[in-house]
Amino acid sequence: MTVLIIGGSGFLGTELVRQAVEAGHETAATFATTQPGTPSGTAWHPLDVRDQARVAEVIREVGASVVINTSSTRADWAVTADGAVRVALAAVEQGCRLVHVSSDAVFSGSRVHYDETCLPDPVTPYGAAKAAAETGVRLVAPGAVVARTSLIIGYGRSVHERAVLDLAAGTREGVLFTDDIRCPVHVEDLAAALWELALSDAAGVFHVAGPDALSRYDLGVLIAGREGADAARLPTGRRADTVPPGPLDVRLDGRITQQRLRTRIRGAHEFLTGGPRVPAVARGGGRNTSASTGSVTGCDVS
């Protein structure tokens, strides 16, 4: 089976590529500017998702059975919203299975707890672009998976982990919000869940996020503790005091999704404090389902 990861050079994309190669899939991936050197066994294709003809050309050239789209560029509507629809159109035209990765940024935080049935109510440009992408993808490709996730952590290489260590070292300006709450997920678990959904007949909206709700600051303390950094040096602040404040407490309720997955999604307390590791592989044939960054003054990347 041939799989294509759009945005394969990114943090999540890199892990999706790794797991696909490890599982023995014929793997292709795209990059926007610089082609990664690893892993071996991956065919890389330059791609700007703003170019409809090029999107269609790459998907046709690869001949993929499955396409996972992780591409997103903050509030760039042409990439985050329109680009997602271009990928969906090309995937449908070629008869590909499609998984679109979305974000908890589509929610305002007004109701705190959001399950898979909740409709987007974004309050930021990025959230609006991601919400528009969801709508477009579901209209163009009703059989696709739309997988919302939260803060992606892992291997010490995520934007959140790097920012925390820089703040603790005093080499970066910014604060960690004490009132900005999310449900972090390990990149390995997220990628494994996405592959499980991709290789099933699932369709619709899924929430793939960790079960632990943590503030940016509390997450930073866990990261600092794991890396041996001084958590006492982490600067704090309140997102509510920023202008505009953006969403505060957004907790993705993924219990329905988790019940349908064999992949277990760990909470941050487990994967940041040395709990048992869940092997991540690109599984097939699982249970059928129908299922800123900036200075961490508001790391909204999911």
Essential attributes:
9 helices, two-stranded parallel ribbon, disordered C terminus, alpha/beta, seven-stranded parallel sheet, Rossmann fold, globular, 302 residues
Draw up the topology in text:
Blueprint: E1 2-6, H1 11-22, E2 26-31, E3 42-46, H2 52-62, E4 66-69, H3 77-93, E5 97-103, E6 113-114, H4 125-140, E7 145-149, E8 152-153, H5 159-169, E9 176-177, E10 181-182, E11 185-186, H6 187-198, E12 204-207, E13 214-215, H7 216-227, E14 236-237, E15 251-252, H8 255-259, H9 268-271
Parallel strand pairs: 1-2, 1-4, 2-3, 4-5, 5-7, 6-15, 7-12, 8-11, 9-14
Antiparallel strand pairs: 10-13
Helix pairs in contact: 1-6, 2-3, 3-4, 5-7
Structure description:
There is one protein chain. By secondary structure, this protein is an alpha/beta fold. The chain has one domain: Rossmann fold, CATH 3.40.50.720. Helices cover 33% and strands 17% of the residues. It is built from 9 helices and 15 strands. The strands form 5 sheets. The protein has a 7-stranded parallel beta sheet, with helices on both faces. Strands 6-15 form a two-stranded parallel ribbon. The protein has a two-stranded parallel ribbon with strand order 8-11. The longest helix is centred in the first third of the chain and has 17 residues. The protein is globular. It starts with a strand and ends in a 31-residue tail after the last helix.
At the first level of CATH, the class is Alpha Beta
Shape: globular
Number of helices: 9
The number of domains is: 1
Structural class: alpha/beta
Strand order of the largest sheet: 3-2-1-4-5-7-12
- What does the radius of gyration come to? 18 Å
CATH 2nd-level architecture: 3-Layer(aba) Sandwich
Query: Mean of the pLDDT scores?
Result: 90
> Can you give the helix content as a percent range?
25-40%
Separation of termini? 28 Å
The CATH H-level homologous superfamily: NAD(P)-binding Rossmann-like Domain
